[in-house]
Amino acid sequence: MKLVDLTGQKFGRLTVFERGANDKRCAAMWLCKCDCGNKSTVRGAHLRSGRILSCGCYAKDQHTTHGKARSAEYRTYYNMIKRCEYENDNRYKDYGGRGIQVCFEWRQSFEQFLSDMGPRPSDSHSIDRTDVNGNYEPSNCRWADIETQERNKRTRKDSETGVRGVRIDAETGKYIASIYFKGKNKRIGTFPSLEEAAKARKEEEKVIWSE
Questions:
Q1: Domain boundary residue among 19, 35, 70?
Q2: Does residue 82 contact residue 50 with C-beta atoms inside 8 Å?
Q3: 184 lies in which domain range?
Q4: Cα–Cα dist 114/116, whole Å
Q5: Is the pTM of this model over 0.85?
Q6: Residue 159 covered by a domain
Q7: Quick one: pLDDT at residue 116?
Q8: End-to-end CA distance of the chain
Q9: How many helices (H) and strands (E) in the chain?
């Protein structure tokens, strides 16, 4: 595999300035300078995946600012980068594999991400893209609860019917319509045709997702 030159690139607070010697597993290592002035040697895969974004000073800052080394906002930030850039992540195919990217400003700075998004409102909220085919960037992201995100989901590629919330009963061959509401998957009913099931799902959406 051809080595990707990371010299001059910035990952979080780290700027790569020189290639280092491979580690014991023959993984490429890079010499980095942190914004705080410290230098460190980091595995290239950890830089690209977002696993390591500072010399360690960020965790200390988090502890001072938030009272804990890893805030919920930082975990969101870290996982966002992983699913967009780390091909071994089990969610990559639905994000980075579809061309979804993290905007340059956020990729370079967690502080900018936190400034744009603000604190997570509650444990039931997570980051949501208003355009499910768009990138992670200030104009396309918000904190949203599960039900709001359910309204905004795209139809899964492996959907057997092509209609969100409608599946085929393997035993009867009929169509089952359901919808996620108040933390539970609510069954709407069983229908002889896809058209009827899809219509019932749409009607239920109007009822429970109305203003």
A1: 70
A2: yes
A3: 166-208
A4: 5
A5: no
A6: no
A7: 92
A8: 54
A9: 7, 9
